[in-house]
Amino acid sequence: MSNLIKRSLTGLLFSVTLLVTFIVSQYSMLAMVNTIAILCIIEYYNMAKHFEIKPQIASGLIIALTLINLSFFIAKRIIPLESLLLILPLLFLVFIIQLYLKHKKPIESIGFTFLPIIHVAIPLALLMGLGLLNGEYKYEIVVGLFILIWASDTFAYLVGVSIGRTPLFARISPKKSWEGFIGGAIATFVVSQYMASYWTILTQFDWGVLAALTVATGVWGDLVESMLKRAAGIKDSGNILPGHGGVLDRFDSFLFVIPFAFTYIYFSLVILN
């Protein structure tokens, strides 16, 4: 089976599975997000061995999953916002545990333990808020962001392969081009306006802003992960997805888009209304 066919089939199956779980119910969304978090964080910690660093894997996973699940039940208004205070002792336990571990690089170990909590867990916790803005589950914004990212990535790749000549960020990712970036931006905006005619939970303007945020911050997310992998001397974060690499490779853009999208939507729909 050629790599292109393998990549296409894997991408299709992955996309359909993701969309179905987010559309079916809030609890299937929660299960999927927890799964994504575990896989991404494990891949993140696997990169640490290339730096001869030993992060606290169990501590990182516990903090990350606690944050994500607390955020879900807070967004559903089942538990109060103050429940997030439970995270504070967990954060400081990382420092205490490090005292009893005989690692040669304690500072690096602590830092790498926290890195995927910031990069992976916080965005996925905010995703819970996007799906439950008013305590009631609505999948449109979450699914819409995925569609915008896929539109941006797909058309940036197609245009870049076809006519890309000008490097976007040659030091980190030589294959990305300004032509691909612009092509992806145009396609993403068109898709956002098409979605606005069906999903009126947001205005055309709001969907347009999300398209702009997706294009700009999504490419930064991709470049940041490329920077990390280049530093580690690896091509992919994992190999769980044939033809695509790891789960972190598939969510690098999305993880960067969420905080910016959440901030805009929260101010636009909640605070200013």
Order of neighbouring strands in the sheet with most strands: 1-2
Could you give the distance between the termini? 53 Å
Tally of discrete structural domains: 2
Q: List low-confidence stretches.
A: none
Helix content estimate: over 70%
Number of helices: 9
Mean pLDDT across all residues, rounded?
90
Order of helices and strands: HHHHHHEEHHH
What would you say about this model in short?
The chain is an all-alpha fold and 273 residues long. It contains 9 helices and 2 strands. The protein folds into 2 domains: 1-24 and 139-273, no CATH class; 26-136, no CATH class.
Task: Give the key terms.
273 residues; mainly alpha; two-stranded antiparallel ribbon; 9 helices; 2 strands
How would you characterize the overall build of this protein?
By secondary structure, the protein is an all-alpha fold. The chain folds into 2 domains: 1-24 and 139-273, no CATH class; 26-136, no CATH class. It contains 9 helices and 2 strands; from the N terminus they run ααααααββααα. It has helices spanning 3-24, 26-47, 57-75, 87-99, 106-131, 140-163, 178-196, 204-232, 247-271; strands at 167-169, 173-177. Strands 1-2 form a two-stranded antiparallel sheet. Helix 6 crosses helix 8 (204-232). The protein starts with a helix and ends with a helix. The model has no long low-confidence stretch (mean pLDDT 90).
